[in-house]
Amino acid sequence: xxxxxxxxRASVQEIKRFQEEKLKGLLEYLKDNSPFYQKLFKDNxxxxxxxxxxxxxxxxxxxxxxxLQQNNQDFFCxxxxxxxxxxxxxxxxxxxxxxxxxxxxxxxxxxxEAVSFACAGISKGDVVQMVTTIDKRFMAGLAYFLGLRxxxxxxxxxxxxxxxxxxxxxxxxxxxxxxTVPSFLLKxxxxxxxxxxxxxxxxxxxxxxxxxxxKNQDFTDNILSQKIKxxxxxxxxxxYASTEMSTAFTECDYQAGGHHHPExxxxxxxxxxxxxxxxxxxxxxxxxxxxxxxxPLLRFKTGDIVQAHYEPCKCGRNTMxxxxxxxxxxxxxxxxxxxxxxPAMNDILNDFNGISCYQIVIRSNEIGLDEIVIxxxxxxxxxxFVNEVRDHFRAKLxxxxxxxxxxxxxxxxxxxxPNSRKPVTFIDLRSH
Length: 432
Prior knowledge:
Helices cover 31% and strands 24% of the residues. The chain is of the alpha/beta class. Strands 3, 4, 5, 6, 7, 8, 9, 10, 11, 12, 13 and 14 form a 12-stranded mixed sheet that branches. It has a 4-stranded mixed sheet with strand order 19-18-17-20, with helices on both faces. A two-stranded antiparallel ribbon has the order 1-2. α4 (103-119) crosses α5 and α9 packs across α10 (383-397). The protein starts with 11 loop residues before the first helix and ends with a strand. The mean pLDDT is 93.
């Protein structure tokens, strides 16, 4: 298997022609096998032979998360006895959506992770510790395992949590890389410091960070990333993926955005009217999957607001790169004339060393306006500290949230819910 696919180093024109050929094959496949897209083509009088270029995609209506939730079974393109794995999306907004994967889809998933990890510098023979779940119908954990196996790396399947066991495993198996939620690295550092562990001289050289942003829009380290690196000199790699995409965008050594793999996915970045944004502007990532057998998606709106970068990377790849996710469209907050996304608030809360745990809650007040409540537990819970946090919000975001101080035990139970795959740091109680 080629870990550095030549198409990623081809010219922009060659990449485009390559994707257009793949798109034609996908449209034929959907016309023959997908009940959902057969109906969509018929209802909208779409003749697939008229879709010849990437620019022609705009002639096809977009697919939304609502479509997936309401017509889940109609997206399946293969008989159920050909499905070898069932996964679900995390279902943070509405009911989870079921995804089936064929044998070929698992192969594609393994290939995707192998080329993505190679992008971040992992290679054959490296030991990698997975600080993430592989069960609970979570596609990503399985994908990481399959990808590492495919590229010839060794895997330590630790699962999330329990710093003591993570360190025991690190000193025992000497992993070079971790795959983890970055905020958990702070818990590991805290444990190591309190128990006198020589973590700075451990075998770990880097971490592939999932589920949380570690970069600002200009690719500098955000506060979370700085806090980790101030204590532990390891390389942190951003990666962005979703169950619907079955594809990852992972940073290379130059750390200037997650690289697009053109053999796996077609991307569009659209404004609120469904038009392509101008270069340098942010918009909603809309994707078309390539090479998926069980549940391919055509012009699926991910709900993630991102900015794309098109100049060639110093690593030699000419593929588009995605910057950090600015926010989820459905989590946008309108607060007294200011538009906000949760990641901007995470950055402010991560700025305080005294905060041991936090959760952002958005609700509608009695007159229908968005209200922000920050629940936090802090080491020195003085009234002055609460005012400092509020002042920091005013200075940075021009908003003044309500702040509720809670005990670490009570808040930690809410944030680290055993039924959730990631820390629950944002709750939206508004009725959308």
